[in-house]
Amino acid sequence: MRSLIFVLILAALPLMQCERGTAADGLRVATFSAEITPRLGTPVGQGFIPVLQTAEHPLLARGILLKDSRTTCVICTLDLMEVHNESYDFLRQAIGKAAGVPASHVALHCLHQHTAPAISTAAQRLELAQEDPRRIATAEYLVDMADKISTAIRKSQQNWQSVTHIGTGQAKVERVASNRRLEQADGTIRGRSSSTKSAPELRKLPEGLIDAWVRTVSFHEGDRAVAHLHYYASHPQSFYGDGRASYDVPGIIRQRLEKSTGAFQLYLTGCGGDVAFGKYNDGSRKARAEIVNRLHKGIEQSIAGVKRQPARPMTWAVEPIKFPLRTDKAFSEAANRQVLANPEAKTSQRRKAAIALAWIERVKSGKPVGLSCLSIGRVRMLHLPGEPFVQYQLAAQKMRPRRFVCVAGYGDCGMGYIGGDRIYTDRGGYEQSYSFAGPSEKLFLSTIERLLTAKQNNE
Asked: Please, what sign has the CA dihedral across residues 115, 138, 416, 266?
């Protein structure tokens, strides 16, 4: 059994370079949900958080299938911290097989709650012995998760619903998000993470650069909303580190909206790499409740303001990107292999070295990362990898000001944070220490622009 699991996980998935398909009529949607909470007490994941001992909420995989006469695609979200490299490919391949589409037609995004595991079998293979309990538990969990999601997708295809209209709405969200990187008078960067419990003075500082707007895309059958997709850019966690599984702020809002609207709800985390709740979160349950209420209010307003248009043909496009490696010594292959060879290295150091080496191996293999964009009429749903900074979301919106551009981050997170080029020379700040790709701001922006500005056949 274990040998089979490892063989499955090591299976490589070729990335289809660029596909563009359109259809003329008959747009339909199917929705699915599957619980993916790891078995409590098992050491699943990279070890960023303690082994989960209790579950405040179930962790869920949720998504939609969209289909017209020529194109089918899947948008799937996971209540997980991250999924990297071969593990990400394995899940996309399984989802695509269940949906009857190539993996390139699957947009898979973690919401990035820190009350859930991060998955990288490639890094664990470098860090841990083959019989290590954490490596075994993670591999088994990955296969089990793929099976549960695949089963839910196959079942969902028994209940396709017609889409006659697509809607768009947006609303400003007050007092939720704030930037994580605060530039001081001397030019240094001070960090402000998801909670400021230990640094209350940071709550007095400005929000900084954020995208304060939540955006909603809705699918309707006549007057009835079938599904709402909500996009908001911020780290989504209000707490972490106590052994409690939770879908946290996004999941609480998602379930509340589903009860009140009767429509399927999908939440996607946008370019929140340098954005979090820190200014408004002291780590207490009271603060979480207030953040939930304010973000929920914003999404309700976005739904209330939805404007519908007749459904148009659908276009799915993919663009590959090959990120460069970092050239600084600390991120070199030799330096990270030395860390793994050092018996006195801390667990956190070994984990980071393994993640860095897994990324180096991937880049050297020549395997690109895929970005994709779903276009329906004036709507653009852009799917990005890693933990992209909010500047990329704002830039994407400016590239197509007459289109309704929604951005989801946290696809394949093997490269970690994707910031602007200045982070590599910044003094202070955390994100550049977990950014494994080299400077690539222009490359990333140009790839996004190609997806957004190419003439679509449905326009």
From this structure: negative
pLDDT digit string (tens) for 363-419?
999 999 999 999 999 999 999 999 999 999 999 999 999 999 999 999 999 999 999
CA 30 vs CA 68, 99, 117, 318: distances in Å: 12, 11, 27, 22
- Residue pair 295/168 in contact (Cβ under 8 Å)? The answer is no
Q: What is the DSSP letter of 280?
A: G
Distance from C-alpha of 362 to C-alpha of 449, rounded to nearest angstrom: 25
Q: Using 50, 70 and 90 to split pLDDT, how confident is the model at 195?
A: confident
Under DSSP, is residue 25 helix (H, G, I), strand (E, B) or coil?
coil
Spatial distance between the Cα atoms of 188 and 182, rounded to a whole number of angstroms: 8
> Helices 441-453 and 390-399 meet at what angle, rounded to 10?
40
pLDDT digits (tens, 9 = 90+) for 20-40: 433 336 999 999 999 999 999
Residue 14's SS3 state is: coil
Token pair, residue 348, equals 């956190």
DSSP 284: S
Q: What's residue 354's pLDDT?
A: 99
Distances from the Cα of 413 to the Cαs of 12, 75, 87, 303, in angstroms? 17, 17, 10, 30
**Backbone dihedral angles phi then psi of residue 247, each to the nearest 5 degrees:** -85, 0
Instruction: Give me 170's structure tokens.
Output: 């947006």
Pinpoint the alpha helices (H) of 128-210.
133-156
**Sequence letter at residue 446:** S
Among candidate residues 408, 445, 424, 409, the one with its CA nearest the CA of residue 325: 424
Confidence of residue 198 (pLDDT cuts 50, 70, 90): confident
**Beta-bridge partner residues of 275:** 179
Residues 6+ apart with CB under 8 A from 271: 211, 233, 384, 388, 389, 390, 391, 392, 393, 407, 409
**Token duo for residue 322:** 């090959």
Chain centre to alpha carbon of residue 275:
14
Residue 433: count of CB within 10 angstroms of its CB: 12
What is the rounded CA–CA span in Å between residue 139 and residue 87?
A: 9
- Sorted by where each begins, the domain ranges of the chain are 2-453
**pTM exceeds 0.70 for this model:** yes
In this structure, are residues 283 and 230 in contact, taking their beta carbons and an 8 Å threshold? Answer: no
Among the listed residues 385, 410, 376, 382, the one whose alpha carbon sits nearest the alpha carbon of residue 396:
382
Phi, psi values for residue 210, rounded to 5°: -145, 170
